[in-house]
Fold this protein.
Amino acid sequence: MELLINNNSVVLNSDDNIITFFNSRDILQLSNLSKLIKINTLNISSCNTLTNLPESIDTLINLTKLEIYYCHMLKSLPESIGNLINLTKLDIYYCVELTDIPDSLGNLINLTEFTIYGCKLLTAIPDSICNLTSLSKLVISYCNLLIDIPESICNLTNLKILRIVYCDILKQLPELLGNLTNLSILEISNCNVITALPESICNLENLKELHISMCYSITILPVMLGNLKNLTEFTLYYCNLLTVLPESIGNLKQLRILEISNCNLLTEIPSSICNIITLKVLQIAYCNSLITIPYCIGNLINLTKLYISNCCLLTHLPESICDLINLKEFIIYYCNSISVLPYNIGNLINLEIFKIYICNEITIIPETIGFCTNIHTMICESSGFTCDNIPPSIILCVKLKILIGSDDIVYNIDEIRKVWYSKIISYPSDPSYNSFYTKPIKDIIDINNLYKWRCNTHYLHSINMQNTITILLLILQNLNTSNTSNTSNTSNTSNTSNKFCNKTLLIEEMLNNITNENYDFLNLKTSIQDNLKNIENTYSINCHHNVFYCN
């Protein structure tokens, strides 16, 4: 409901004991606030003529939340504010004329959240803040004239969240920041003068998230950063003078997300990150001096998303990327020095999204992409990239629904699949064409990996019918090669040709069934050993450890 107090417009929610002064011109006349003693939330917003709060505010003994927003002429807070001992939340937003906070702030012993945001003339935080022993969240943001944060802040042992953002001339962080033993989230952003983080932050054993961004003067990170044993998320943006990451980063055994962006002088990522086997998301973007990615990146077996963007000096991707068997999303963006994708990309059996944007030197997708049978989205948006650059083996990607080429061309998957199928069964005499199906197996696929599949590795224990078809395709191409080589022997020409013809017709019939969607790929599951055994019995083909060959 709305009521009048000393001719002021006030909105009162009697059920929730919440009162809001919005755009009230003469709020200073509210000298007697005792009538509002029962309220627990007071919101003062956009009172543009308000210069001071009444001292009688301390009569609101039940107040738990005080919110002061956009009071552009407010210059100070009353000392009596310290008597609001039941206050748990204090928010001050965009009071651009506010120059100081009273020492009595330290009397708010039940305060759990304190946010001061957009108070551009504020120059200091009172030392008495150390008495706020119940404080769990502290946000200091857009306080452009704030020079120092008191060392006493390090006594707030119950603090869980600390965000210091857009404090343009803040010289340094408190040296004993590591005393905040219960801190779980630390964000330092747009503090342009800070050159280093205190070494003591490596003592924050309960820290789960560390976000450092737009701290343009930071040149080094704490050497023992790896001591943050419970850290799960680490983001590092726009630290333009940072040249190296500490080797100890590899000790962050609980890290799930690592994002490094716009660190223009960073030349390498330490190989120790390959020890972080818990990592699920790795993003490396706009690191213009980065030359290589650790060769052992394939050790990150739990990685589900890999994003590499705008690393203009990066010339290649390590082959071990193909060992990231749990990778679901692989995105490469504006890396124009990369010309070749890792050949065994087909080992990424759980890949669902594969995107290449504006990597104009990449013109070919490896034939092994056909083994990525879980892909549903593929975008190859680079100059001159067309459907012809994608190998026919992609017919095996039965879940593929979206295929986009250069100039945002969206291809009709069903029509393209027919074209690819016709290429597979055509077998032109030119050996350079469609090499995935005309070269001997040992030349076109990693036999060791195929053998691992045959032996039911932990990551491919159960496979579905589409993998059977993959094996059939491989056998079919080997039959073709075998037939070509055997026809030189005139005495065996007739028998070999007949045997070859019968086998290929049978297998091609099965392939044809795939094209016509006569197989339920998702429900027909068996082991690769059973598939091979069936193939041996049906087509009289021996499937040995390292090679397929005909009887």
Notes: Residues 436-550 form one domain. The radius of gyration is 33 Å. The mean pLDDT is 77. The first strand starts at residue 2 and ends at 5.
